[in-house]
Amino acid sequence: MLSPFRIAALASALFLAGCGHVPVSTMWALRNFDGLSVDPAFLRAAVRVPRAFQPRPGGVKVVATWGKKGDPASERKVEIVLREASLSAEGPALAKENLPGNNLHVFRVAPDDVARLRALQAEIARAKAEKRADHGSLGMGADACRTGDLPDGPILMTTFLKMSDETGWLTVLKNVDLRTLASKDKSLEEITPPCGKLPQRVEAAG
User: Fold this and answer.
1) Do residues 101 and 51 touch, judged by C-beta distance below 8 A?
2) Which residue, of 30, 47, 49, 110, has the fewest CB within 10 Å?
3) In this structure, what DSSP letter does residue 19 have?
4) Please, which residues have CB within 8 angstroms of residue 155's CB and are 6 or more apart in sequence?
């Protein structure tokens, strides 16, 4: 039987297993949560990064994966890019996370993609009912770029997710150091490339 369609935490250019970064309070809040019940119209995501960084345009997305273990041909993955939204419209619960020296960016499902995500949820539910899938995840991905030189010290990114008014804003990944994502195959400069002449719609903390 397929367990509840879980909320997975995804960050930066790499998908992190990252359970050590997920607060216990979030894991508890999501212990019985079924991602197929999320209303895409109310889904919100937020990314907090140091001011020298920002999410790449088109780099914040909902990522859905599902399939049947032992059957690679059954594995499916769909990504839906989120649209930047207004921080001020989200109220004080999220605004308090806008810490000095950081930028907090908020995203939502674009109106044209709400129906697409609902159809995706229905497709996964059918795969579950027909036993074509026995695992799945619904997560948030965020790719960062930098507006200047790489700073010294840790580069901490935190991601937040809101699925309903009942759950409120949950911290998904807390203070992930982007430097820890660097490897021999991919340097920090490649993981966080220069943003170039990109629009910077953002509301910054004081």
Assistant:
1) yes
2) 110
3) G
4) 49, 50, 53, 177, 178, 179, 188, 192
